[in-house]
Amino acid sequence: MDTTGAVFDVMSPDCPSRLILQRMGDKWTPLVFLALESGPRRFSQLRADIGGVTPKVLTQTLRQLERDGLLTRTSYPEIPPRVEYALTRLGDTLLGPLEVMREWSQAHAASILRARSDYDELHQA
Question: Cα angle vertex 40, ends 36, 43, to 5°?
Fold first, then answer.
């Protein structure tokens, strides 16, 4: 429940919280958050920190997160122009859960890779 009294249920197909959960679980969003954890970053810094993301996809991800109120885009009137991205207070609240997911992913990566290999061997056509 939020402060307006609305009740959200991610298991309901029409609930807006489902879209938010999907955004948090996409390929690039968690990496953007982890890259911004230490403070504001320029676009090129984010791209370098994340690795493998195309400029187009990073731009789309940043715009979606800005629209959701999870990060800010600040443009400085300098020559050359400088733009920085930073997490908002709301965005900061996701760092704890994402850190837990990062730690879990790193701690269990070998087990999951082994399970995939075992599965693939067992189910080869």
Answer: 85
Q: How many other β-carbons are positioned within 10 Å of the β-carbon of residue 87?
A: 20
What is the rounded CA–CA span in Å between residue 30 and residue 95?
9
Measured distance CA(51)–CA(40) in Å, rounded: 17
Which residue, among 1, 76, 4, 77, has the nearest Cα to 40 in the 3D structure? 76
Which of these, 26, 28, 25, 70, lies nearest to 51 by C-alpha position? 28
How far from each other are the two terminal CA atoms of the chain, in whole angstroms?
Answer: 48
Taking only the tens place, the pLDDT of each residue in 95-125 is 999 999 999 999 999 999 999 999 999 998 6
**96 contacts: CB under 8 Å, gap ≥ 6:** none
In whole angstroms, what is the distance from residue 59 CA to residue 63 CA? Answer: 6
∠ at Cα 95 (21, 6), nearest 5°? Answer: 45
pTM for this structure?
0.84
